[in-house]
């Protein structure tokens, strides 16, 4: 029976465990580059035992960023910064994954803490802003992403697919061994997929097959340059939680098509095309896992999900029950760079310290008289301390 700490192999890549750090935009890049901050932040998580590490959504074009401070790989000059990071991740025994994306109509934004909320836009005429693009001229709305959206022509769509392929080639040069396409969270691909944002009447709009076309063509473009022996995965915005948006039930067919076009794993998440969501289940750890289990069984494709899986027992159970193949952790990875080591101790792993670099591991394994005092108190130990106080 697999468990959270079983190795996992997809194509020619073997991860040391089932714990992946989910992509998280850091808003800390200059001209799209990864620098010392990213080396420190991602290197720490690799040393902390994560099996797979995604930096963040990496833009395939300057206007495909969320903010002017977001990471990119649209230029050969950006490869070096990525290569420093992948080589550190590799040296720490983890695997470096890239999430390629284009933010579409949800770009040209302020950092959330500067704008006071997610999605507050910089006007296109501002020196730091740009003209956002989408399937149709429908702004996201809700008083935030309000500027006009340029509807892409077919020639412009084809150019974006070429940008995906170029970015994938650079990702390979930079040393990434796993590539995820970002087809979720309201960004360009997700907006093509959603009837809420896509009002086109050509071959890219209307039926499910037409709405999925942008995604499938992007995947085809990347598969041509991304080696067959390396994993190619996608995060799909499978549900807008709105009666007129993308529906989970139709995503089985979509994922089946993506699989036929060479997708190796699906990562299910939300559509993110509207703020008017009806009954989204963000706080429930099991809801996404149950959806993942259905997708895995019905389409027969390796599956992963994120959202609220930071309690080790929940994460381990999802793997043991073979509902999903990997656990993606976002906020828990931000909060605790050593989450895997902590989880291993919580779950009674025989040698949690084998997850950290050998030198630290030796010291921590052999000088362990006062475990709580080295900074990894177990949940039960903390509870006992509180009780006896
Ligand atoms: C600061 C931050 C930035 C994020 N940026 C991205 C991103 O670039 N791409 C993406 O697909 N998801 C992004 N997410 C979503 C996470 O990858 C993850 O799916 C989500 O936080 C749920 O997992 P969690 O409950 O473990 O945090 C971000 C989340 C956070 C907290």
TrEMBL record:
Keywords: Flavoprotein, FMN, NADP, Oxidoreductase. It comes from the Bacteria. Residues 4-347 form the NADH:flavin oxidoreductase/NADH oxidase N-terminal domain. Gene3D superfamilies: Aldolase class I. Its cofactor is FMN. GO terms for molecular function: FMN binding; NADP binding; NADPH dehydrogenase activity. Signal peptide: none annotated. The keyword NADP applies. PANTHER family: NADPH DEHYDROGENASE C23G7.10C-RELATED (PTHR43303). This is NADH:flavin oxidoreductase/NADH oxidase. It comes from Nocardioides mangrovicus.
């Amino acid at each position: 029976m697999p468990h959270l700490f079983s190795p996992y192999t997809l194509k020619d890549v073997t991860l040391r465990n089932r714990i992946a750090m989910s992509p998280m935009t850091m808003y800390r890049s200059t001209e799209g580059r990864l620098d010392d901050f990213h080396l420190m932040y991602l290197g720490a998580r690799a040393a902390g035992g994560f099996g797979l590490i995604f930096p963040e959504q990496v833009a395939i074009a300057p206007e495909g960023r969320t903010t002017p401070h977001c990471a990119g790989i649209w230029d050969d000059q950006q490869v070096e910064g990525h290569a420093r990071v992948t080589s550190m991740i590799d040296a720490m025994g983890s695997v470096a994954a890239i999430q390629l994306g284009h933010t579409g109509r949800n770009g040209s934004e302020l950092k959330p803490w500067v704008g006071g909320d997610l999605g507050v836009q910089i006007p296109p005429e501002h020196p730091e802003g740009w003209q956002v693009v989408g399937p149709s001229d429908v702004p996201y709305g809700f008083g935030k992403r309000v500027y006009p959206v340029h509807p892409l022509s077919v020639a412009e769509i084809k150019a974006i697919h070429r940008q995906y392929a170029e970015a994938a080639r650079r990702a390979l040069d930079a040393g990434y061994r796993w590539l995820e396409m970002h087809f979720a969270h309201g960004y360009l691909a997700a907006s093509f997929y959603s009837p809420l944002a896509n009002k086109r009447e050509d071959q890219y709009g209307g039926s499910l097959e037409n709405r999925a076309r942008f995604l499938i063509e992007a995947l085809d473009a990347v598969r041509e340059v991304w080696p067959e022996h390396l994993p190619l995965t996608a995060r799909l915005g499978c549900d807008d939680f709105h009666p007129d948006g993308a529906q989970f039930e139709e995503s089985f067919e979509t994922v089946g098509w993506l699989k036929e076009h060479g997708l190796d794993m699906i990562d299910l998440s939300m559509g993110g095309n509207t703020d008017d969501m009806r009954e989204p289940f963000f706080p429930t750890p099991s809801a996404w896992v149950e959806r993942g289990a259905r997708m895995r069984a019905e389409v027969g494709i390796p599956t992963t999900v994120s959202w609220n899986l930071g309690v080790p027992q929940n994460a381990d159970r999802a793997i043991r029950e073979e509902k999903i193949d990997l656990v993606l952790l976002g906020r828990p990875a931000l909060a605790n760079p050593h989450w895997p080591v902590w989880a291993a101790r919580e779950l009674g792993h025989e040698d949690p310290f084998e997850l950290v670099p050998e030198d630290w591991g030796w010291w921590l394994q052999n000088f362990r008289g006062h475990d709580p005092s080295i900074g990894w108190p177990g949940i039960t130990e903390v509870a006992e301390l509180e009780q006896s106080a």
